[in-house]
Queue: 2 jobs
Job 1
Amino acid sequence: MLDWVNRIKFSENSPLEVLGHENNFGFQRHKPQIMDASHWHGHIEINYLFNCSADYLINGKKVSVPEGRMILFWASIPHQMIASSGEGEMVNIYVPLQSFLSWKFSNTFISEILHGEVLVADSLHSSDHPVTRMWEDDLEKKEIALTMQVIDEIRNRIRRMSLESYSTFELSHSSDKLDNKSLVGGLFHIQAILRYIADNYDQKVTIENVAQVTGLHPNYAMKLFQRVMKISIKKYINKLRLQHAQALLIDTNNAVLNIALEAGFGSISRFYDIFQREYQQTPQQFRHQWTNPEHGERMYI
């Protein structure tokens, strides 16, 4: 949840590789830039178009986004900016997929995104531009409390979008035309696995359970997930559980044992082992650092 990079850079050698940042948040502000080729990655991507418009090529279909809009899409679909106009600027925000799914938006909203749809807010709010400036300033300070606040505000901005009117480009109707030999050929199976994990990660989940929702052999399901998501199913489930536990450590006074069980860890020892391996601190240290930021060690992310 706390991993963040100021700018996610894409490898020139492979459009799928994002230099190990698939599980990091990202933020960047820039002038619209025409891309030489499509790329794709595992994030949920937000694009703000402030005083500019842009044309995208998304999964082979041209999409024109008017000036002053906010769009949201799952960036595992090949996408490319092919034209832009206006003197404004763009803000790109990258949200790790496991974070997005842990935020528990409506099934309809999530389903549209996971089926390859581009969601377009019908209009920006007057606060959007100054708020993104504030987020940028807060992130540059690299303080844990401000970073967590920015994440919460991004989540709430997406939630507001999900509750207000938005449009789509009906891209999901053509998503069955994906080339099964491409890197995203198993997208529908991945969507089913992600949806199942998002709904059940706080319970006991086996590879057989996960594979059953797709009708795939467990070994093939594991290989397909690793190939597309660049992370194993086991590690992905643990990341969702860790994010759930982090939220409970910050937002509640629940005992660590209860938090471990509520987040889906089978035992307190397993929770401690995974938490410390991932964050190099105990759950209590994390909670103390958040609840007493002026006394805690600053975390650079």
Job 2
Amino acid sequence: MLDSKALQSIPLIPANTADPAPEYPWPKPYRSAMFLSFDVDAESAWTSKDAVHAQRLITMSYGGYEARVGTPKLLELLDQLDLKATFFVTGWSVDAHPAMAESILKAGHEIGHHGYHHLLPDPGDPWIEEELERGFEALKRRLGVRPTGYRAPYGEFTEELRVALVRHGIVYTSSFRDDVRPYRHRLADGKLGTIELPVTASYDDWMHGLSARFSPRSIFPKEHVLSIWKDELDETRDWGAMVTTVLHPQCSGRPMRLRLLREFLTYAKSCPDLWITTGEKIAENFLRHEAANR
């Protein structure tokens, strides 16, 4: 429980001091956008919670499903629908499953940085820099890729991490939940940070369909999730804004969830005003308008 001293230490400023998101237009003929993205954690989703899980083989098998079935099935679906996506991959997953990682790249999708061990970034953690560097190194060594996009493990951030990402040349991040359009971060010292492509919380499939023995949540049926996703998309389109998915192969790569995703993406593709694309392309659009307005 917080004591009065701890409460008094809370700064009386917004946690995010970035300027409001500019209403830059989307490329014609689009009036709204979908950042189609996946988080590839594999077994690191479980070992990051408890390293001893590495010896619990059934627990590990939930993550291993990504390389064996989930990712291949999702790549097949994206190919059928002629869609390109961004896959944020942990360095551990690249090292443990190089063939899976190579298949994502070979299919023409963007690879993003997602840490190395999928560790939760907490203020003052001494390994934040190491996690970044090991992730960069694995992606370069295995795939020849220097990513421009980053998504934080567990969707958490610290100021140390925000500063480090700028230093490492990351162009855009996608973790915050505080807007419906891209914006530019502002660091604590007033300098500009990365472009943020905010996450749409309702498009995190982990919340609706994780199939694991110890999940505290029930699996939601297709009709419930599809209704949420369609309503979110349609209202966002009316706003001229953006939705961002956080999909996981060990969740959406399961048969029932893949059927749900196929139906949703088919619907999304039928919307002529919706630009479905990668984080890299959305960040490039932001940069073009930012430069023109400067």
